[in-house]
Amino acid sequence: MSNSKDLAGGFVFVVAIALIDNLVIIEDNIDTSTMIWLNSANFVMGSDRGMTDEAPAHQLDLSGFWMDKYEVSNSDYQKFVDTTAYVTYAEKMGDSLVFESPEQNHSMRMGPLDWWKLIKTADWHRPQGSKSSIDEKATHPVVQVNYDDALAYCDWLDKKLPTEAQFEYAARGGKEGNIYSWGNQPLHLTEAVSNTWQGNFPNKDSQVDGFSTTAPVGSFPANDFGLYDITGNVWEWVEDWYHPQYYSFGPAKNPAGVEMTDSIDPNEPSIPKRSIRGGSFLCADNYCSGFRVSARMPADPTSATNHTGFRCVSSPSVISRFFGG
Question: What's the CA gap between 283 and 201, in Å, rounded?
């Protein structure tokens, strides 16, 4: 039986899902019409071939969960704001971080701090500042949202942000041991399979995939679990506080990261960081490679950028189990 199942049908009050090894009864007032059910599973998380914070590769047990098929779109977020009058952190601050390539500013020194610029009025309505707009981008992923902004949306729907383990399992799509969600072939040797940076970052994006920034959600093929843009398009907030050695001491079942007080980013040890996953339209073979399924990235939870968004998950309430449960 497949490890994922698309169970549409509007709001779920009582849903029965028959699995190979058990029957899970769910009592949740959750709209799962645009979500995918992922069965409980054992899988190998991490990689011994990637960055040091991805090691060691290790076996994990995960309980079943629902995950949004798509990244949360501008239209989705607009409904949330219209209903709740929520104001994002970037809107309160009056500015936010926007990527600017050396093509646009030749005076930049070559380094991450030099291609990010704090832009006045940049927020989720205007991802790149006052001259930008989401008016024609209703189906693009919402960006310029920090961790709290993402969590507030998920809370509104009685959902959660995924853990790193949930996200990586989902991104792998059942392809155990693969480097990418599409297989092991490097990005530059494939057709456009996700929205990433094609070419030499940060100087030139050839835009083989047809996009210079975000793409409408679902523009590229889903992975084998039926999840869209699980790699590329935008980085996605997850629940875990970041720790580079977490895989060496975390639990073997349903890990959810360290406590905030134990979070550490060696590059900025004084600032607790959350993790983001999946890579974005700014990730390239020669830099970042965040679209690798095991790739991890620490991020300041108060920061918002024009390449970070999110999707939600829901963990069902288990009432009873049969067949060996």
Answer: 8
Instruction: With respect to residue 321, please indicate whether it lies within any of the assigned structural domains.
Output: no
Per-residue pLDDT for the chain (325 aa), expressed as one digit of tens each? 455 555 444 444 334 443 434 444 444 578 888 999 999 999 999 999 999 999 999 999 999 999 999 999 999 999 999 999 999 999 999 989 998 776 554 444 455 566 788 899 999 999 999 989 999 999 999 999 999 999 999 999 999 999 999 999 999 999 988 998 888 877 666 677 888 877 777 777 777 787 878 999 999 999 999 999 999 999 999 999 999 999 999 999 999 999 999 999 999 999 999 999 999 988 887 777 788 999 999 999 999 999 999 999 998 864 333 333 3
Expressed as residue numbers, the domain containing 106 is 4-314
Task: Check which CATH number belongs to the domain holding 155 and give it.
Answer: 3.90.1580.10
Q: What is the pTM of this model?
A: 0.87
Nearest alpha-carbon partner for 294 in 41, 123, 37, 46 = 46
Block residue for tokens 């905030």: 260
Overall residue count recorded for the chain in this entry = 325
The answer to whether position 144 is within a domain reads yes
Number of separate domains in the chain: 1
Distance CA 55, CA 87 (A): 38
| Burial of 305: CB neighbours in 10 Å, binned 0-12, 13-18, 19+ | buried
Flag whether 320 is in a domain: no
CA distances from 290 to 283, 298, 317 (A): 6, 12, 33
d(CA 160, CA 79): 18
Residue 48 maps to a domain: yes
